[in-house]
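Example record used in the benchmark description.
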Amino acid sequence: MELLLRQNVEHLGRVGDVVKVKSGYARNFLLPMGFAVPVTKANMAVIERARAVVFAEEQARLATLKELAQKFTDTSITIESRANEEGHLFGSVSQAQIVSALREKGFAIEEKQVRLEQPLKEIGVFDVVLHLHQGVDATIKVWVVQQKPQ
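Model output (structure tokens):
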């Protein structure tokens, strides 16, 4: 069954795409939820107008994210953690700790946007990639330092 998408549907398509799906998926999910409509000339005209609006909003959002990525290039955060004499941490620095430190600086970042190949387990300076949007990445410096004894 061919349908015209009214909204972006993950793993299926974007607004205005004509997609071919199984009839059960269309009848039981896409049509009742309002995510898609049958392919007609009238629906095509309505969706094209909606697609233009969505495209303009996406371009504005992308520009905002690129500005935010520029701000991140000048940003560094410091995370204190307990470590032994060789500089190995008792535990590790995770995405959640990086997000918490960024939120303290006023940046609204989600944990899934922080791209760590593996948790940070040593004292030092690390470059961490933040994935803001498809094609928009920023790199910040994360300083992992020895926690002061209390």
